[in-house]
Design brief:
It contains 2 helices and 8 strands, in the order αββββββαββ. The N and C termini lie far apart (86 Å).
């Protein structure tokens, strides 16, 4: 019986030793948003995610999945398998792509821009895979510069070729 408890104590201590460098979760925020491609059924966006590491050890990010809400509405989803090492007490920018099939949200953003708003509230949530620590959830709210929405407009009949 003592061996059994000793065995589990060793496993528990080994697990705690593996978490010694991660005292806080990495912080992930939206640093930029740009329309990359507009199609009838799908829109693609280039996004910049800022990953901040408040820990005293480098973090190797192996990938992530995320959802973005803009103005309180579901907006886009994305994932990335790109790896990046975030230095201890530092930050890194990760370029990712997200996909939306919500043309109505784009119309909403265009209306906000017409009203003179240059920033929009966002919520970024998902999971980040950190080497040695597994999958860690994140959830961040903030505001971001409105994306440029230079969509093709319908040309008058006399201009069509």
């Amino acid at each position: 019986m003592r061996r059994f408890f000793a065995y589990w104590l060793v496993i528990l201590l080994a697990g705690c030793a593996g978490l010694s460098g991660l005292s806080q979760k990495p912080e992930i925020s939206l640093a930029g948003l740009e329309l990359a491609e507009f199609k009838l059924f799908e829109q693609r966006f280039k996004m910049k995610l800022r990953i901040q590491n408040p820990n005293d050890a480098d973090l190797r990010i192996n990938g992530l999945t995320f959802d973005v809400d803009l103005g309180g509405q579901p907006f886009a989803k994305g994932l990335s398998e790109r790896a990046v090492t975030v230095p201890r007490l530092g930050e890194a920018i990760l370029d990712v792509q997200a996909t939306s099939n919500l043309g109505s949200v784009l119309k909403q953003l265009r209306e906000l821009k017409k009203r003179g708003r240059d920033r929009v509230d966002y919520r970024l949530s998902g999971r980040v895979d950190v080497d040695g620590y597994g999958s860690i959830p994140f959830d961040r709210r903030g505001d971001v510069q409105m994306p440029a929405l230079d969509l093709p407009h319908k040309r008058p009949d006399h201009e069509r070729i």
